[in-house]
Amino acid sequence: MLEELQKKLGDEAEALLHELNVTLPKEIEKAVAQGDLRENSEYSAALERQGFVRARLDYLARRMSQLSEIDVEHVPDDRVGFGSHVSVRDVEDDEVEDFVITLGDNIDFETNEISMESPIGSALLGKMIGDTTNVVLPAGRRELEVVGLKTLHELHDEKGSS
Fold first, then answer.
1. What pLDDT does 63 receive?
2. Tens-level pLDDT at each residue, the chain (162 residues)
3. What range does the domain containing 111 cover?
4. How far apart are alpha carbons 57 and 17 in whole angstroms?
5. 47: CATH
6. What is the β-pairing status of strands 113-115 and 96-102?
7. Whether residue 98 sits in one domain with residue 26
8. What is the model's pLDDT at position 151?
9. Are residue 12 and residue 47 in the same domain, yes or no?
10. Are 88 and 134 within 8 A, CB to CB?
11. Residue 97 in 3-state DSSP?
12. Angle of helix 2-18 relative to helix 41-68, nearest 10 degrees?
């Protein structure tokens, strides 16, 4: 999972670097050739995009640095932690949901990835199968029971043996 995150961030950074060093300079040059820059919306848009791309690249560099500092050996192998695939049952309505616990703002609703810092993610950290936890969400309070768990270590072992 760590390698996948690093690759995803690296791919995005590479695309942004290309945009910053190749695409945007061409757009700015084209806008400058049109004359008066004070009322040139293409020029303003390109400069604004350039600022956004630089900020995003700075952010990605910080995230890559954070990822490189993670020691997988310190991730728990018997309870919910980074990289865990967790199944939880809502005690009130008996509905079961699956989550993948990930870092920071790396959230993907299509693959049920939630951040360790999110309300549900932080409530699940350190829990084992059978443990329950209360989560306060904008929609109200939920009591969740951990009914399934595969840690990062178990998932890594499965990949290695297949």
1. 82
2. 677 778 888 999 999 999 999 999 999 998 888 877 777 888 889 999 999 999 999 988 988 887 777 776 777 778 998 888 999 999 999 999 999 998 776 666 777 888 888 899 999 999 999 999 999 989 889 999 999 999 877 766 666 554
3. 76-161
4. 8
5. 1.10.287
6. parallel
7. no
8. 87
9. yes
10. no
11. strand
12. 150
pLDDT at res. 87: 96
Query: Contact at 8 Å (CB) between 140 and 70?
Result: no
pLDDT of residue 86: 95
Distance, in Å, from the CA atom of 70 to the CA atom of 3, rounded to the nearest integer, reads 11
Query: Two tokens at 59?
Result: 């952010």
Contact between 86 and 35 under an 8 Å Cβ cutoff? The reply is no
Q: Is the dihedral of CA 29, 35, 37, 42 positive or negative?
A: negative
- β strands within the chain, DSSP E: 85-90, 96-102, 113-115, 132-137, 140-150
pLDDT of residue 112: 85
* Contact status, residue 67 vs residue 78, Cβ threshold 8 Å: no
Q: Do 104 and 45 lie in a common domain?
A: no
Q: How many domains does the chain have?
A: 2
- Residue type present at position 84: S
User: Are both 13 and 39 inside the same structural domain?
Assistant: yes
